[in-house]
Write the structure tokens for this entry.
Amino acid sequence: PALRSLPSLAAVSGLPHTQPSATQAPAPAPAGAPGPGPAAPVAALDARGLPPVAGPLEAARFTVRAVPTPLGQTPGYALVGKTILVTADPYGVANQLVSRLRHAGAEPILVSKKGAFAPAGAHHIDSFAPDVLRRAVETIHAATPLDGIVHLRTLAPTLPLAEIDDEAFAEAVDEATLGSLSLVQPVYDRWEAATPQTTFYVAVTNLGACLGVADGSLADPLAGAHTGFVKSLRRELPGTNARVIDIERLHPVAVIADTLF
């Protein structure tokens, strides 16, 4: 399984370098082999720089729209006695959610940066760098096996691409991608063997409550990393209830915490 064994983005980014590039000379053909055929014609690009779709591959364009849908009846989840890790966000949603979880009989553990306001009993870390976060989860999970994770650090704002330098963007990408891996890899084996629907992972994004499709804009270009991670997690650990919940951060913190709870 990819999520359990993937060591780093470096392993993924190195894959293209193991294949011949378009600029490398092709290997010589064996003696007697037929020569290459005529070069394929190069199609003109459209206004977006994409080749036109024509022939048997021609398809109608479509637009994704947000459509209100009733939630329907969903089975309740027993929180009593469950150990739930919650990563802190910059707005205080995590603090209020931890309070609600504790009141419901769960045992929430808040992971927060040192110096940030957090309730008593929080696990403080120096930063949310993936390696730091992973060590924290390993320590917590070894002491008290985790039943659920609520990733609220995903609400941390990302600067617009036009305003962020390469180094800061690289750090943001690492936190958005490897950070999710750092949360799940320490619990992967236990969750894989757990009774179905007794473990859960929730990532919360801030794209206006419609996953960024309401007005065609994308406020956070890295939010897709969280939704993509959850899609992979649902395939690899089908017994784990993995979800992405998109919110409108303009709502009061208490309303957001109540909604997530």
